[in-house]
């Protein structure tokens, strides 16, 4: 049953990522892969919040696994982020490549910490 929930939640996360990515790409000039950064940062915040809720006993293990592994795993995309960094470097945009990797890492870690902290403080 857990595997099915992970698969369903993963599909929902991937579908949401597709929608968010498309909406941002339609509105933001494409110098930096902003849509991928947004998806990874917001997904990290959600994962941090889910982890805190689980640690506090607010989420059953099955729900946590489905939401964290399934939804967040389907929604976020580390591989795309790294590929976009490589593409920037291949195009000679070395500063943008380093900036993309650093910005993604710093913001995603901060977002996970904020998500965890908010739920810990409220829960």
Describe the structure using short key phrases.
85% helix; 123 residues; 5 helices
Word description of this protein:
The structure is a single chain. The protein has 123 residues and is an all-alpha fold. 85% of the residues lie in helices and 0% in strands. The protein is globular, with a radius of gyration of 16 Å. The two termini are 28 Å apart.
Offer a quick outline of the entry:
The chain is 85% helix and 0% strand.
The computed structural class is mainly alpha
E-strand count: 0
Spell out the helices and strands N to C.
HHHHH
Average pLDDT for all residues: 96
* Major beta-sheet overview: none
Shape: globular
Task: Give unreliable regions as ranges.
Answer: none
Helix count, DSSP H or I runs of 4 or more residues: 5
Q: Helical residue percent?
A: over 70%
Number of domains: 1
Strand content: under 5%
Radius of gyration: 16 Å
Head-to-tail CA distance between termini: 28 Å
How do the helices and strands line up, and which of them pair or pack?
Blueprint: H1 2-27, H2 34-55, H3 61-75, H4 78-90, H5 94-122
